[in-house]
Amino acid sequence: MNHYLNINDLDNLQQTVQEAIELKKQPLKFEELGKGKTICLLFFNNSLRTRLSTQKAAQNLGMNPIVMNFGAEGWQLEYEDGIVMNQNKSEHVKEAAKVIAQYCDIVAIRAFASLTDKEKDLAEVVLNNFKKYAGIPVVNMESATGHPMQALADAITMEEYKVKHKPKVVLSWAPHPKALPHAVANSFIEMMQLQDADFVITHPEGYELDPNITKNSVIEYDQKKALENADFVYVKNWSSFKEYGEVMINNPEWMLTGDKMKLTNNAKFMHCLPVRRNVIVTDEVIDSENSIVIEQANNRTYSAQTVLKKILEDL
Ligand code: AN0
Ligand code: CP
Predict the structure, then answer these.
(1) Which domain, by its residues, includes 27?
(2) Do 69 and 189 belong to one domain?
(3) What is this structure's pTM?
(4) Are residues 76 and 14 in the same domain?
(5) Does one domain contain both 57 and 101?
(6) Which of 8, 34, 210, 253 could form a disulfide with 62 if both were Cys (CB 3.0 to 4.6 A apart)?
(7) Are residues 95 and 226 in the same domain?
(8) If you ran DSSP here, which 8-state letter would residue 141 be given?
(9) Pocket of ligand 1 contains residue 183 by CB under 6 Å
(10) Do residues 271 and 147 make contact, with C-beta atoms less than 8 angstroms apart?
(11) Which residue owns the Cα nearest ligand 2 atom 3?
(12) Which atom of ligand 1 is nearest to the CA of 150?
């Protein structure tokens, strides 16, 4: 594999999930593979899981990770061509990306959506410019429109916990005081479209995601109806896509509660984390034995390790 920008960069999701489950049993099996290779992890936004699990994954493969909080400590980058750089941007991505490629073999990037400029976000300006100018493999650690490393970890986790061949999986919107990106939901949907499952998305009217992502996936506006007989409930907030970046509803009605979980088939509760307790989900649900959020976070290591292994094998 050359780049990992989208879940569809994987040849075969089911096979990749199995590879990850095998790697989890013997995480150091390929510790020679990445020897002498360096990965730069560039963070334009905050992170806990991605930052630690990707470093751990790289180290398990014998690689040397270098982490940079680019958003806080790097020069402000210009992405537009032919511009007179006499404002606040100090460096052009053309130089920055090429310079970074002098120091590493793979570059991984976290650059969230602006949620103000839809066109730029949809164009994946940061990721695509790094891809264009760095000339080395680029890994998406949550971009404007996707978080495929999370989606692969979610697929691994569902494979570990599913008890029937074709589970019912519900992606439910939940309230949040701040405008959050669409990336996690987008990649989860793209991943679910590759699975043999009964998949339902539920959210208030007006919170429709990009139709180019949701395609033919089922949308049910009645959350309780959607939850009926679910085997997995994945909860996530996102801001409006249509009224780009707006928070239109912020009432507790859509929070996931114990009562709502009673409608399900003893469903497992999933969330990518970080999560706001008693806003997105009640303590009762996240602290219950059906909550698998910590295993999802654990699987971020094996998701990253499987992806990095595939890239290293093709370097
Ligand atoms: C981010 C988001 O919703 O995209 C990161 C999730 C992995 N969450 C927050 O900003 C709280
Ligand atoms: N789930 C996830 O990507 O977490 P972080 O934002 O903490 O990396």
Answers:
(1) 7-146+300-313
(2) no
(3) 0.98
(4) yes
(5) yes
(6) 34
(7) no
(8) S
(9) yes
(10) no
(11) 50
(12) 7
